[in-house]
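Reply to dn_fold:

You asked what the input looked like. This is it:
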Amino acid sequence: MPGELAERWPKDGQGAYVPAAKLTGCSQLDMGEAIINSLLDSCGIPHFTRYPHYGGFGNLMLGVSAEGVDVYVPETMLEDAKNIIEGESEDEEL
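and this is what came back:
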């Protein structure tokens, strides 16, 4: 894990990094990745992206991945992250 991400990523009781969980797969073409990353950053949730299959090559050559991108967060923060991207809050009353 690179520097800043390693500092922000939560650790378990033994000091090991909490496993990553896939939050969502999204497209780069409609700015979905940028919007999700901005939302997570603004809420202080660490995250990283991975390109499925050969998407990283497409991103390198074309600037976008035709196969989209997967966003990962710590599994302990997965529910919070899902609520954030779906626009829900724990404080909202029904």
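The chain has a mean pLDDT of 81.
Hope that clears it up.
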